[in-house]
Design goal:
With 261 residues, the chain is α/β, with parallel strands linked by helices. The protein folds into two domains: 29-121 and 221-255, D-Maltodextrin-Binding Protein, domain 2; 125-218, D-Maltodextrin-Binding Protein, domain 2. Helix content is 43%, strand content 23%. The strands form five sheets. A three-stranded parallel sheet has the order 4-1-5. It has a three-stranded antiparallel sheet with strand order 10-7-11, sandwiched between helices. A two-stranded antiparallel sheet has the order 2-3. The longest helix is centred in the first third of the chain and has 25 residues, at 2-26.
Amino acid sequence: MKKIISLLVAAFAVVSLTACGSSTTATNTYDQVKKSGVLRVGTEGTYAPYTYHDSKTNKLVGFDVAVIREVGKRLGVKVKFDESNWDSLFAGLNAKRFDTIANDVGVTPDRQKKYDFSRVYTTSQSVIVTRKENQSIHSLKDLKGVKVAQGLSSNYGAMTKKAGAIITGEDDMSKALKLVSQKRVDATVNDQGAVLQYFKQTKDNQLKVAAVVPSNAADIAFPVLKGSGLAKPFSKELAAMKKDGTLKRISEQYFGKDISK
């Protein structure tokens, strides 16, 4: 009898420990963010006008920076940025070094298999940049066999690889554009807003927008780990920001027009 009772007590203890373990596992990232009061955000800090440092104050600014800061404010938490190059941002998210990425992240089928996304808050359209004298590139198909500078894990890297381009790995857009200007590569593909901002800031008269890629307009949203619980509250606050005009105001500040969704 004592043996049976002992076995029952042991079994109960195992069940209790299992239940406790399940409770700990069930704590999602959103709960942890609310408890700590800090939302950790990965970003490049070198991708104007989305995420960059103000030349006068060195403060991290940009469209995506302002949007996620407002989301954090409405959630009642502090936003802490972790700057890294593009090709390591998703690795950082996977390793839980930060909770989301604010860096003009396109929603793609492959990424949707791995991550949850907030509601879309803007769209991004791609352009091909070449030197001014280059008259041979007018569309993606013209990149076949051509040297291009691209981030290897970016949408643009995948796009140009599919087009048959010879890729030189460079995830920093400003460095990629300099490679084109210096004739070390023939072209690069990137976001239209970011490219125009670069032209405005650097006044590099060696470059031009050779073509727009109209079929590659990408929806932009904040990626989070699946099951993190962050996508829904992010989406709720972004919808409110769209409704009350906050997204429009931030958009006009950085682009001169409303590109929000």
